[in-house]
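Protocol step 4 of 6.
Sequence for Phosphatidylglycerol--prolipoprotein diacylglyceryl transferase (Microbacterium kribbense) entered exactly as in the expression construct, tag removed. Do not edit the line below.
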Amino acid sequence: MTFAPASAINGVLASIPSPTISYFDIGPVRIHFYALCIIAGIIVATLMANHRLTKRGAEPWIIIDILLIAVPLAIICARIYHVLTHWSFYFGPGANPWTAFFIWEGGIAIYGALIGGAIGAYLGCRWTGIRFWTFADAVAPGLIIAQAMGRLGNYFNNELFGLPTNLPWGLQIQSTNPAFPAGLAPGTLFHPTFLYEMIWNLLGAAVILWAGHKFTMRWGRQFGLYLIWYSAGRIVWETIRIDPSDVFLGLRTNVWAAIFGVILGVVIMIVQKRRHTGLETSPYRPGRSWHNEAVQSGNTPEYVDVSEPGDDESAADVTSAVAAPAGR
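Step 5 output, structure tokens:
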């Protein structure tokens, strides 16, 4: 099969152009669009999670106390896993090991971020008294939206595109780009996998919000649904991406990570449904609480509903959450 250059493609939209710049300078400071997308995603996820936790009866902005631990650990683990799974990029022949620290050039693992973020969130929840699974459910839709926004950063970096295509929404990549596959004609278009994943993630946020309300999903089951939705899509996108990746037993490591993510999500949903037949009586762990004016005046906050004896979460409940795989 041959692939025509962009100028030869006919359609409503001939192609998607790639940005020619990925940063701008303010005096001596260089600002990368990739970093701005990540930061914007974190802000959106924080605002959504704060709203959802507050609605459940938690202290407003207690989410900040949790994220002070979770976000740094997520970024650190995301970068560490990326470097470990692309070892030759940084420590192979002719490579510069110092570039392993150049996170602003791209290269963070989403599943790696989930590992660090889950560990940090668990520690933050123990500190603040918030139930880990309540937090996980609250952050799930905002998290997948943040991931969609992060993929826009890959677009600005001209990276992580897919196989060549003649589709009218093919992505333009300059032939001078180091990631441009050798042997292909200049002007060849590629699948915009960043766009596919953005759309899939935004749909996933809508599904999580709808399912959480429709089926009153609590005790981490919304987070389990997030893992299933995101990972299922990731399996598909990874099959058409052409960026270098380590291969294990014939599959890219990211595919294995996504497969495990689906399995883990299913396990969380099944186990938590069986362990907890009622709803959380409070977003706080037993012995911890926050008394606002609504509670003191006798008004019933939304989170007070159906309860069950011994509804505290155990260490076993969160073991699976911090054992997720990683992959960019």
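Step 6, annotate. The longest helix spans residues 132-156.
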